[in-house]
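Subject: Sanity check before I submit

Could someone independently write out the structure tokens for this chain? I want to compare against mine line by line before I put it in a report. The sequence has 214 residues.
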Amino acid sequence: MKKILLTISAIAGFVFVGFAQDYGFEKGNVILEGSFRASSSNNGNLSTKESNFSFRPKVGYFISDKFALGVDVILSQSKRDSDPESSSFTKQRGNDFAAGVFGRYYFLEIGSRFKTYTEVGARYNQARMRAFDDPNVDEQKFGFNGFSTSAGIGANFFLTERIAINYLFTDLIAFSTSKQNDAPNAKSVSRFDANLNSFNNFFGSSSFGLTFKF
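---
Independent answer below. Compare away.
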């Protein structure tokens, strides 16, 4: 009987510890986060291959239990190979860099582990592209500088008290402006997007990552 009581007490203790874990954030927490996206395509009709990769690390500090401020960096690369008969440049290579600040507000909890947030950010963007034709080894370089702002939503699902999966949905609203910096008469190009249809296809425009809480 004594062994049975001890076993029940031990099980109850483990259950209590499991429920006592704090799946969430509070004032003074620091988060380190990283998300990535990758895509590739092969168009046999046009003999064109494309690939894209981006990585986005973030650091944030909670000034309250639900609101965090932080900085982020976006690093991305793109690659395009085309048939010489269908394009003046058979190869194109791009490298993009962006750095900025963001504010994040957690507005909804679904259960104890799932936390959703809205995020607003602003960042400086720099893009470099090389285009060349293999037979002539003739390379052209293009550079662009600009500024962008965006607003979107995301979610964290806590695996442990300090580690969560981050699911970053596409930006719902975004504005950007850029200008080619190596062209004397170049003018700024601006763009505004309201991508509210993303609710119909989250998995087609989102990125996954990990969030670490300290």
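---
OP: Matches mine. For the report I'm noting this point. Residues 1-20, 200-204 have pLDDT under 50 and may be disordered.
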